[in-house]
User: Fold Aromatic ring-hydroxylating dioxygenase subunit alpha from Mesorhizobium caraganae.
Amino acid sequence: MIDDAMRDEWYPVGLFSRLDRDGRETTLMGGPIKVALDANGAAKVTGENGRVLPVSVRYGHIWSSLGEPKKPVFPIPEADQPGRRFVDVGVVRVRCSPLRAVENFLDIAHFPFVHTDILGSEPHTEVENYKVEIREEEDEVWATQVKFYQPQAAKSASGGITTEYMYRVPAPTCSVLYKTCPPRPGEWDVIALFVQPLAEDLCDVWPWMALFDDETPLTDLIHFQQTIFLQDRSILENQIPRLLPLDPGMEIPTRADLTSVAYRRWLKRHNYTYGAQLVAQ
Assistant:
């Protein structure tokens, strides 16, 4: 069942640059939708029985909702920053809860074991202390002061460095990562994960990047990010339970899971339950 809170959120449903007049037929939270261009070249989304749905175009993606969003798509200020390179990575279908996909993106401890010799390596497995908070004014989950040694932090990195991260959850099925920018110390590379919930245990994941990197070929940037996420997909599709448990007693957290704990608490606060498991089974 779709909860009212998540019904009124924005979700990515396609890439604007790849849309043509024939459109794209897809699914949003169990219901069929069609994403297309109107006679003026503007994006339009229709649901069941031809119902016209809300539309917004941000970060190269088309966003829509089954309900009535109370605010615009969340801001990413770096998307308006001159000199950045914006990369639409495409879409990856994952057989997992859309909330699980976001939670996995927030997980630091798995780097050495899942992304070996890229985002992490043994014996550099320790997660240092970091700060997690729910920022009341923005109503977002933030993790800051996150540091981790990485053999190749980005496609532009020439060797291993200690990378600093900030994680931000501005919407239930979206997360934004800020990380050390190897070519430009003092700036942040931005990698976002926009998740389209197809069903409670199935989602399309749309990664997007805003980088300071004028040298790496676009194909290499896309391939690097897809490699990372495809490594995650095998983990996500084998997690049990498939839905994200919101009862704190159902999974035992560690220090490395502070962001996940805050994310689940934030979901419960807002009654974001689509894709969640509320009680032990």
